[in-house]
Design a protein that fits this description.
Number of helices: 4
Mean pLDDT: 78
Structural class: alpha+beta
Region (Disordered): 232-261
Domain PRC-barrel: 8-56
Biased composition (Basic and acidic residues): 237-261
CATH architecture of the domain at 6-136: Alpha-Beta Complex
Order of helices and strands: HEEEEEEHHEEH
Strand order of the largest sheet: 4-3-2-1-6-5
Shape: rod-shaped
CATH topology of the domain at 6-136: Photosynthetic Reaction Center, Chain H, domain 2
CATH superfamily of the domain at 6-136: Photosynthetic Reaction Center, subunit H, domain 2
Pfam family, one: DUF2382
Protein name: PRC and DUF2382 domain-containing protein
Length: 261
């Protein structure tokens, strides 16, 4: 926002000269004759009523729309509190001006405002609130800015498919079997014996390997989606407006170019 209005600054955070937040903008006080804003009313967390701070030397930051004042927090906290009736009488204003003039400031000394103009906010390095003469309607300079975002879109699919393969499996199994062997024992007890043919038969045993198949679960396989961060570079051509002045003093034009730089 190149020239924010006073309405857009209502509720903005107020920072002291050390860059610390101390309150929020509640309202602005205007000069009865010129209509130029000269004081800002700040409301803090104490709720004791608004604290008035001079706008001379104050500035704003475009990135967060914050108001920066060149006074220390302690000096602002101890400033005289005026009754909140929507107006500042000349005597009270002189009292406030004398109080703030007695303290130290971060920038230029407080001076009188131009009685012929409305206040305009000019952005810059320190972005001071300045009071100028009749500026006329002026020209608004615009420029294109590359706005980058992301859209979620489908890039592919992933699926699980189960199929069957065959493989040979070999297992060694320990087994036993029986074997017959000849054993001779001498006979010490003499008994009658007969001579003739005779047979004796015994049964031999052996382990026989058997095999069968059974289906058992061995693991569970699933799909998990992970987000992986990466970077992509986007470039495009943007347009900017430039304003040239005619019939303006060269030194003033040079100062304005330096301000923009």
């Amino acid at each position: 926002m190149a020239n924010p209005t006073m309405e857009s600054l209502i509720g903005a955070t107020v920072y002291d000269s050390a860059g610390e937040p101390i309150g929020r903008v509640e309202n602005f006080y205007l000069d009865n004759q010129t209509g130029a804003p000269t004081w800002v009313a700040m409301m803090d967390a104490t709720g004791d009523g608004p604290t008035l701070i001079p706008l001379d030397g104050a500035g704003y930051r475009t990135e967060d729309m914050s108001l920066r004042v060149p006074y220390a927090e302690k000096q602002i906290r101890t400033a005289p509190h005026l009754e909140h009736d929507g107006r500042i009488d000349p005597r009270a204003e002189q009292e406030l001006m004398a109080y703030y003039s007695s303290g130290q400031r971060r920038s230029i000394p407080m001076g009188a405002t131009n009685a012929a103009a409305r206040q305009r906010i000019r952005p810059g390095a320190e972005e001071p609130m300045t009071y100028g003469g009749d500026q006329g309607a002026g020209l608004t300079r615009s420029e294109e800015r590359l706005v980058v975002g992301t859209d979620r879109e489908e890039t592919g699919t992933a699926r699980l498919h189960k199929y069957v393969v065959e493989e040979e499996q070999t297992i060694t199994v320990p087994t036993t079997h029986e074997e017959a062997r000849l054993v001779r024992e001498p006979i010490t007890d003499r008994t009658d014996a007969t001579i003739g043919e005779q047979d004796q038969e015994i049964v031999l045993h052996a382990d026989r390997v058997t095999a069968h198949k059974e289906t058992v679960p061995v693991e569970r396989v699933g799909l998990v989606v992970d987000e992986v961060a990466d970077e992509q570079t986007v470039s495009d051509t943007v347009r900017k407006e430039r304003i040239e002045a005619e019939g303006v003093r060269e030194d003033r034009m040079r100062d304005e170019k330096n301000d923009r730089a």
